[in-house]
Amino acid sequence: HLALLLNSRTSDSREEVRHLLWMASAAQPNNLQILLDLASVLSQSKRQIQALEVLEQAIALQPENPRPHLQRGNILQRIRRNLEAIEAYATAARLGSEESDRALLRLTLNTGERSHAEAALRRLLARSPDQAHLLLFLGGLLANSHRLTEGIERLHRALELSPEWPLAECYLGYALLQRGRFAGGLRRLEQGQAHALQRGEPLALPVEAWIEQARVFLEYEKRLANLDAGEATLEGLPEDPLVAKTALLLGRHELAAALFRRHMERDGPEPPTALLHDAARAQARSAAPHNLLALDWLERALAIERRCLRDGTRAGTDLRGFLYAWRYA
Hints:
- By secondary structure, this protein is mainly α.
- 76% of the residues lie in helices and 0% in strands.
């Protein structure tokens, strides 16, 4: 009778199920399945707090069983308590639940909790090392975190498994740009764009902007060849932050630091946070690093990020810069 009611979607049936399950849980308080079913029915009835209380009982009963942790994560995510949901999914994943790893990956990629996303990806790849889409996710995440060597390796492996995959080609092109390999990055981006057009697959990536940026990098690379960081040199260069970015990506940190200092002087009290992050990287890595100046720029970037997160003044704020700044600080 209970099994039939569980498959019913009417509110009256749910009420009867809940009543029967309460009775069953009272009669068999150590029956995990009854507690999980009761939590599920309570959640379907929009009684999420009660459902979470029941799952706490289930976890106390069998703390090493991943199922109640996974179910708890699902409910917490449903009511937008995302950080708690991440913890619940991570616990279930550590206990061996592959479904929890996939749920954790989806949630963390959406919320910017990249350390959890990376851990989930590595666990999934340990089980299935030749999954091209997992290699793509991990490679892209590592590239965005400025761990380019491993990121590029993972993206190359994804392309070995799925040749001419437009998304992987474009992510690899972007990673190569960040490594300062502008010609190779541009080639990969153009290949990815061409293969996407051939297949009729839209790319949810700013590929046109990346291609244009790659061409600018190549042009500025030629202009920066054999230049030093002297004042006369700086005055002869365009007032474009991408000049400093080009020097940074080429590993010319002293020249990049000088160019970024020029922008800091002219951009007022609140320049873009990406500019502050790049400037701090260049400053800290230059031959004569000004670490206090780099830290000051990072503190300014963090203050801007915190304000945007607090009052929502910038839609879709990306936490990558926030985490990245803390790491360098």
